[in-house]
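User: I'm writing a short report section on ligand binding and want a predicted complex to refer to. Could you take this sequence and magnesium ion and write out the structure as tokens? A short remark afterwards would be nice.
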Amino acid sequence: TSILHILKNWLRLLEDKFYVYQFYKVPQFNHNMQENQLYRKISTYLNSLPCVEDSDFTNLFSGSKSNDINLVLNANQKIVDNFLGARISWINEKDEKTGVRSFVLKIRRNNKRQILRTYLQHIHSKFDEIEQRRKEVRLFVIVNDESNRNGNGKRRWISVPFTHPATFDTVVMEQDLKNKVKVDLETFLKSKQHYNRIGRIWKRNYLLHGPSGTGKSTFIAAMANFLSYDVYNIDLSKVSDDSDLKLLLLQSTNKSLIVIEDLDSYLRNNSTALSFSTILNFMDGIFSCYGDERVMIFTMNSKDQIDPAVLRPGRIDHHIHFPLCDFNAFKSLANSHLGLKDHKLFPQVEESFQTGSVLSPAEISEIMISNRSSPSRALKLVISTHQSNSKLVPSRTSDKIEMIQNNIEADLAPKHPLRLSKSKSVRPVEESGESDKYPQGLIKSKSVRPMVESGESGAFGKESVNDLRKFYGLIRIKSRKKSLDFDTSEK
Ligand SMILES: Nc1ncnc2c1ncn2[C@@H]1O[C@H](COP(=O)(O)OP(=O)(O)OP(=O)(O)O)[C@@H](O)[C@H]1O
Ligand SMILES: [Mg+2]
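Assistant: Sure. The structure tokens for the complex follow:
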């Protein structure tokens, strides 16, 4: 490697003899000792180049995030950048006497005319891009404007730092689709001139649709983190009229994600004071033409019965479907949540998925989080849920979780006849009103939980209590869903 490096340097020196070069110096300070902004931009740009790693001497600094390490060029180091096929060298000069630094650009004379101007513009836009990524992302939500005493219910934004950890790497979805969205967003970021030329507002609209718990909101967070855009979450039920919406949009900034969750429910239930045409105009970006560079995201559980006008190209540029969990998604979740690349139960899990997906990634993710100490148990729970007749699987998450729990209790039932009879007497089937929805076995023991959780183990014997404790994870999910029936002291 060293020999190759030396040879390359020699070759370069030899090559240099055959060309005439022009030099440009960018000092750190101007004559009044004010910082030269161009120096700062060039420094940021050069330190972001991968070739910094190849320079002979580089400084390492910790970055803003705990695991980040930033590479910074040391004084008097040379790096070479390639731009439109031309080689441009930079030296980070430091005056030994004064300690003043400057960057010196070296470019072939014949390249200068063709590319220098474009190259400097390129540095400017790269710097903007890097700064944008470094910026703290904020989440804006709508509140009533208290200061507006006679303000007939006007709203305003308040913001908090947006700290959602989701990224495109953590969201489980088809890799091709994920890449497509990334490329689409990257192209969008670079397309200001294109949008101007064709006379369109520089915006892109996405529709994320699919059942509850399939990752739509998580995906929005990943997009915000990818773009480093602020998120403006518009709750349409809080917007009092058309002018209110316009005002709110006027107060939002460029480079932002405008999010409307559950648009279908607003449209179906008419639960907003806005007219249909206002919503369409808003989606067209007519109200947001005061700003630029917006990505609008709408989510829906289903596109059924939605007026096609809402979904037409231009209003929605990109439709992304979020399906229930299939086996591939399950494997990704098992890998990220349980650290499982493979498991002896995987073939069985795969088979259980063949009856059709009934669980959302959110539900599978909950099972895995609650049972992360025992991956086999988590996998068994997924299998047992799928094995129940998929037609009997309810659609509401809380009902599904309950059904999973009941399955486990049913599994335990033959071993603990006493428990069964006890539970039956405590909570009769008719009480639940669900007797025609699930088979008898699935609802029989709902009320066992309070007794076990409150520590009344005497009624069941140690073994059964231990068995139920094994599934404590699930009991926790359920009790969380039911917003805690019992107080903690009882627990
Ligand atoms: N595709 C996915 N990849 C990774 N995690 C997921 C995925 N889908 C759901 N989850 C997990 O499930 C939880 C709920 O997901 P999320 O809120 O994004 O669902 P949603 O589609 O927005 O649901 P809703 O329609 O009810 O708002 C999240 O905490 C997330 O961690
Ligand atoms: Mg959501």
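A remark for your report: Residues 327-481 form one domain. The chain has three domains: 12-134, 139-321, 327-481.
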